[in-house]
Write a structure and sequence with these properties.
This protein is an alpha/beta fold and 220 residues long. The protein has seven helices and nine strands. α7 links the parallel β6 and β7. α1 runs antiparallel to α2 and α2 crosses α5. The N and C termini lie far apart (39 Å). The chain binds S-adenosyl-L-homocysteine. The site of S-adenosyl-L-homocysteine (SAH) has 24 residues, from β2, α5 and β4.
Length: 220
């Protein structure tokens, strides 16, 4: 049985990670506080645990099974910071993955709806997050369509590289709501921030180059 405890050593590693993220430009104390609290090493998949446990608090991505990766802590922090998530915000996350970003949003006090396309990841994250005490509503399905029944949202975060901006997601934003989404079909994508100005208008800002696994289109 692997030792999957959260210890003072892990806390020390998290403090270093927070300092590193601060040095890289993350200033939102709510985001840094969340990252300082969440045991990222417990999000590593069982079969990868031994290989990655020592690196869980480095600013790197690692595999979470099913050919997917957990995002770099900097990327999670950056997307969350740009959304300016506040306590009580209703947030839609596309790409639950291992649930680490979900945990960050929970620590900030958001009410979270999270969609994952791969059933195994959806099941695993749902179980893990409830065990760790992070509450969210998890959906297995296609993120391109969002969740019309639960819209509108204050914030939407897409954690996979999308070939285009899903129109349904823009339509599911509240007025003044924000969507952060990496766009591009190659190995890297451009981070885009959309803000809904009114029923029909959105502002758009490009925020630099990032690297994500692709957002998959459901052919079914
Ligand atoms: N937020 C995650 C990052 C996971 S990587 C974390 O913190 O670990 C991106 C995830 O998006 C993958 O799990 C992938 O399966 C999922 N994904 C890709 N295309 C999708 C789609 N169309 N709808 C929902 N999820 C999708």
């Amino acid at each position: 049985m692997l030792n999957r405890e959260d210890t003072y050593r892990h806390l020390g590693m998290r403090k270093k990670l927070v300092a590193e993220l601060r040095a890289k430009g993350i200033q939102d104390e709510k985001v840094l506080g969340a990252i300082g609290k969440i045991p990222r090493h417990l999000f590593i998949e069982e079969s990868q645990f031994t290989a990655f446990v020592e690196k869980a608090y480095s600013d790197i991505a690692f595999p979470i099974g099913n050919d997917q990766t957990i995002s770099h802590p900097f990327t999670v922090a950056f997307q969350t910071q740009m959304l300016e998530v506040n306590r009580g915000d209703v947030v839609l996350e596309i790409g639950t993955g291992c649930g680490y970003q979900t945990a960050v949003l929970y620590e900030i006090g958001a009410k979270i709806f999270s969609i994952e396309r791969i059933r195994a990841l959806h099941d695993r994250s749902k179980t893990l997050l409830s065990k760790l005490g992070y509450r969210a509503r998890f959906f297995h399905g296609d993120g391109y369509k969002g969740l019309p029944l639960h819209a509108p949202f204050d914030k939407i975060v897409v954690t996979a590289g999308a070939p285009l901006v899903p129109k349904d997601l823009l339509q599911q934003l509240k007025i003044n709501g924000k969507l952060i989404i990496p766009i591009g079909e190659g190995k890297t994508q451009i981070m885009n921030l959309f803000i809904r100005k009114n029923e029909t208008q959105f502002s758009r800002q490009e925020l630099g180059s990032f690297r994500f696994v692709p957002m998959l289109i459901n052919k079914a």
